[in-house]
């Protein structure tokens, strides 16, 4: 949009009418792609009451009780924004393993996996992941986002069709677009619509792309029903286990294990930034598929490998959770407790059945940011999620419950939620 489209961007009331979606396309009056639309810069200043809440600075680890920079004041907060699902971010064994690897392997890998970045630690983690997931092989990516892009862009070609759930993560969508394949969406978790979309693609190479747990809604995909449709059409499936890896299933093998469909998934993708509290990602599947991707997933072949210390920390994290699966039980217990508490306050949590718990506000975007600031001042760190990441009438906070939260943490969070979101609603009646 051009700057003329924004009536008076310096008025906060006008700024509320716009979002990032309004500035996605280039300004028709622009001649330089390095200069953003003037209206965006004006809106950014006018909407600083909202945008200043993004990219918050933690002054400590991503643990349940941490410290957060709130408009220049560092406050102690209950952290319900970090993914640290199994509480490994500051686990002493994980920290010790990373420190030891710094001494033996140095700071960085200093090269791509294809040329010089692979180490014995990387190989151990690959083998460990394949064994855990019951697959023939696995490969590591230095970025979770890059892993999704790399896997899909490496597998798909122009003329292929990717059939993707409508609520799939943007990394999966970007991977399809980068590949040149046709992108076709089907209604979220709707087996009948998946069937119709696959029928349209008959005669072409197709791939179905699903998530185990959806990151904005916290619902688990109905994998048995969706896989049955894909199998009827003879189409393979890539399953994104980013939020479900290690956190779901009796042995931590994700949503596929939870749903009893492990042997029916062609390729498993996951990230290390959630349950393993680290960084990076992986894909796991048949040996020939992984070998192919090592050469054709550019995000793998042309990125520096993960730092060895990070890999060592993740190997220790796997030791911790395999030795003590009760951590996973505690995660789900905490999630059920918190979700029930939020619903008991009359707040919509959508279709969430997991440790990802949305607190849906509705369409009042001003309320979203006012409440976010108020909660931080009272000691609760909840991340706001605005359009276009979610529908315009479902802006929300997204809570990430972890095994490390105590009931005292969760009760204190619920008290603050009642004193902010619930109190504001009552006052508006």
Broad structural category = alpha/beta
> Main beta sheet: strand number and arrangement?
7 strands, mixed
Radius of gyration: 22 Å
Distance between the termini: 36 Å
Task: Assign an overall shape.
Answer: globular
What's the CATH H-level superfamily name of the largest domain? Answer: Type I PLP-dependent aspartate aminotransferase-like (Major domain)
Which whole number gives the mean pLDDT?
94
Task: Estimate the helix proportion, in percent.
Answer: 40-55%
Helix segment count? 16
Strand arrangement, major sheet: 3-9-8-7-6-4-5
Q: Roughly what fraction of the amino acids lie in strands?
A: 15-25%
Q: In the residues, how many domains can be counted?
A: 2
The CATH topology of the largest domain is what?
Answer: Aspartate Aminotransferase, domain 2
* Order of helix and strand elements from N to C terminus: HHHEEHHEHEHEHEHEHEEHHHHEHEEEH
Oligomeric state of this protein: single chain
Residue runs with pLDDT of under 50 for 5 or more positions:
1-10
Name of the level-1 CATH class of the largest domain? Alpha Beta
CATH architecture of the largest domain: 3-Layer(aba) Sandwich
């Amino acid at each position: 949009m051009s700057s003329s489209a924004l009536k008076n961007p310096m008025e906060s009331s006008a700024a509320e009418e716009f979002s990032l979606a309004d500035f996605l396309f280039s300004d028709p009056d622009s001649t330089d792609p390095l200069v953003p639309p003037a209206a965006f810069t004006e809106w950014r200043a006018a909407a600083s009451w909202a945008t200043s809440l993004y990219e918050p600075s933690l002054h400590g680890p991503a643990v349940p009780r941490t410290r957060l920079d709130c408009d220049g004041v560092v406050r102690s907060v209950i952290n319900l924004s970090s993914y640290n699902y199994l509480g490994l971010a500051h686990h002493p064994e994980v920290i010790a393993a990373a420190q030891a690897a710094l001494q033996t392997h140095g700071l960085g890998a200093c090269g791509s996996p294809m040329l010089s970045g692979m180490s014995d630690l990387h190989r151990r983690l690959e083998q460990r992941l394949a064994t855990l997931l019951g697959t023939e092989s696995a490969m590591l990516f230095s970025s979770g986002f890059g892993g999704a892009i790399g896997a899909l862009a490496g597998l798909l070609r122009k003329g292929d069709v990717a059939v993707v759930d409508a609520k799939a993560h943007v990394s999966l969508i970007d991977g399809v677009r980068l590949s040149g394949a046709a992108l076709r969406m089907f209604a979220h978790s709707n087996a009948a619509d998946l069937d119709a979309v696959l029928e349209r693609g008959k005669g072409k190479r197709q791939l179905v792309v699903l998530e185990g747990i959806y990151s904005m809604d916290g619902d688990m995909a109905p994998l048995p029903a969706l896989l049955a449709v894909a199998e009827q059409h003879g189409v393979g499936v890539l399953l994104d286990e980013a939020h479900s890896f290690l956190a779901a299933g009796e042995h931590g093998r994700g949503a596929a294990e939870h749903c009893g469909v492990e042997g029916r998934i062609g390729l498993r993708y996951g990230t290390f930034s959630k349950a393993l509290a680290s960084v990076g990602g992986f894909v796991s599947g048949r040996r020939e598929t992984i070998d192919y991707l090592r050469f054709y997933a550019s995000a793998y072949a042309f990125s520096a490998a993960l730092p060895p210390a990070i890999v060592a920390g993740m190997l220790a994290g796997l030791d911790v959770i395999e030795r003590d699966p009760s951590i996973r039980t505690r995660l789900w217990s905490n999630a059920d407790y918190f979700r029930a508490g939020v619903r008991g306050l009359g707040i919509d949590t959508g279709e969430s059945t997991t440790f990802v718990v949305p607190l849906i506000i509705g369409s009042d975007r001003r309320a979203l940011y006012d409440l976010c600031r108020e909660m931080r001042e009272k000691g609760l760190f909840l991340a706001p999620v605005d359009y276009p990441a979610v529908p315009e009438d479902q802006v929300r906070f997204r809570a990430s419950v972890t095994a490390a939260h105590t009931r005292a943490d969760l009760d204190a969070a619920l008290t603050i939620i009642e004193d902010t979101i619930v109190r504001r609603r009552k006052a508006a009646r």
